[in-house]
Automatic annotation (TrEMBL):
Residues 2-83 form the GST N-terminal domain. Belongs to the GST superfamily. Theta family. This is glutathione transferase. It holds the Pfam family GST_N_3. GO terms for molecular function: glutathione transferase activity.
């Protein structure tokens, strides 16, 4: 069994996406918690691992990999028994890559527009334009889900990335079930995974609760 160390924070969607991938591959991770609010990611020892001071960071017996998508691809490529989670077929792989870019460039980016202002800048409101921006991302995902999963009929690492973000933001910006039946069906399919709750379920809910609690705390300050 390889020695895999993940510098992580379970509240973080990208970290949970890596945890989902590891669980799907049957890999054990030694997790080292990095508290962003406490500034752990800015400490000299962490900056030696990742000068961009972001998490997650994977240490595979001295090989350092940063950025969640890169880590997931690395794990599947090196340790996967097959290529189902990240297909080698160029067309299927391109669809997975497109979904990964959609997650980082649209879903996660728009979540950050709301969460960071509350967590790091003491804001107390949810600006209407930013909420609408998130709602538009929901509609884009709904339109994208033409099959059971985001990149086609089979589950891939793109689903892990997208669900880690969606499960967090929907607790702050409402995701209407009547308007987004495909998204809810997709969520239900992923929840059937035996490792889903441990790797993502609680973390997604907890992040939303943490943001809302911080919002109330800011209002009292």
């Amino acid at each position: 069994m390889p020695k895999l160390v993940l510098y992580t924070l379970h509240l973080s969607p990208p970290c949970r996406a890596v945890e989902l991938t590891a669980k799907a591959l049957g890999l054990e991770l030694e997790q080292k918690n990095i508290n962003l609010l406490a500034g752990d990611h800015l400490q000299p020892e962490f900056l030696k691992l990742n000068p961009q001071h972001t998490i997650p960071v994977l240490d595979d017996d001295g090989t350092i990999i940063t950025e969640s998508h890169a880590i997931m691809i690395y794990l599947v490529t090196k340790y996967g028994k097959d290529d189902s989670l990240y297909p080698k077929d160029p067309v299927k792989q391109a669809r997975v890559n497109a979904a990964l870019h959609f997650e980082s460039g649209v879903l996660f980016a728009r979540m950050r527009f709301i969460f960071e202002r509350i967590l790091f800048y003491g804001k107390t409101d949810l600006p209407e334009d930013r909420v609408e921006y998130v709602q538009k991302s929901y509609r884009l995902l709904e339109d994208t889900l033409l099959d059971d999963f985001v990149a086609g009929p089979a589950m891939t690492i793109a689903d892990f990335s997208c669900i880690s973000t969606i499960s967090s933001i929907m607790g702050v910006v409402a995701l209407d079930k009547a308007e987004h039946p495909r998204i809810y069906g997709w969520i239900d399919r992923l929840k059937q995974l035996p490792y889903y709750e441990e790797a993502n379920g609680g973390g997604g809910t907890d992040l939303a609760k943490f943001v809302l609690a911080k919002k109330e705390e800011n209002a009292k300050a």
